[in-house]
Write a structure and sequence with these properties.
Aminopeptidase; eight-stranded mixed sheet; alpha+beta
Length: 198
């Protein structure tokens, strides 16, 4: 049976559909949301329609539990953003990448931690993952706190080049510059670490 939706205490997580393009456009139009992703520039709606939403829809083909999940507040049905778990096989290790992006109105309420915790639990208990990783910008303190609350540890700092950002196909290539002085940071948690802390 295909899982297309599940709930946590305060969230409903469901698969995106082709009709959800406006949710992603709205999310990526807030300069505060995009501050550490594009320097505050909105993601062009055409890029979301042509590239980003198709990638989101394709993410469910990775298997049960994987994908980019639209997050809604259970009590009101309000769209909050998305939380994702995508496969990242490396060096023979079953590894997945955790991500999240929430609307400004949802910040500071523990929603990212709650939703990401559910995906981590699924990854380690049902998907046979050995490690889960996540990345953020070093000065994005709120995002780093989420990762640390999840029990993840800092494993490296690096500086992505404009060419590396272009290669993802997820940025407006006409506006990419080396806009940040700081570095990106990678966090990780191993299955045994998660078990010890659970």
């Amino acid at each position: 049976m295909t899982i297309s939706k599940w709930t946590t205490d305060r969230l409903t997580l469901r698969r995106f559909t082709p009709d959800d393009v406006n949710l992603l456009v709205e999310l990526d139009s807030d300069p505060a949301v995009m501050r550490y992703l594009s320097g505050g520039a909105s993601t062009p709606p055409e890029l979301i329609r042509r590239t980003i939403l198709p990638r989101v829809l394709k993410s469910y083909s990775l298997g049960e539990g994987y994908g980019v999940w639209a997050a809604f507040e259970r009590s009101s049905g309000t769209f909050l953003g998305w939380i994702s778990l995508t496969m990242a096989e490396k060096s023979g290790v079953r590894e997945a990448r955790l991500g999240y992006r929430l609307r400004r109105a949802a910040w500071g309420n523990g929603y990212a931690t709650e939703g990401a915790s559910a995906l981590i639990q699924t990854g380690f208990t049902k998907l046979g993952l050995q490690r889960i990783v996540a990345s953020t910008y070093e000065h994005n303190i709120a995002s780093r706190r989420v990762l640390e609350k999840l029990g993840m540890r800092l494993v490296r700092k690096y500086h992505p080049t404009p060419d590396a950002l272009r290669s993802t196909g997820l940025y407006d290539t006409s506006t990419i510059t080396d806009m940040w002085e700081g570095d990106d940071v990678d966090y990780a948690i191993e299955r045994d670490e998660w078990r010890r802390s659970s």
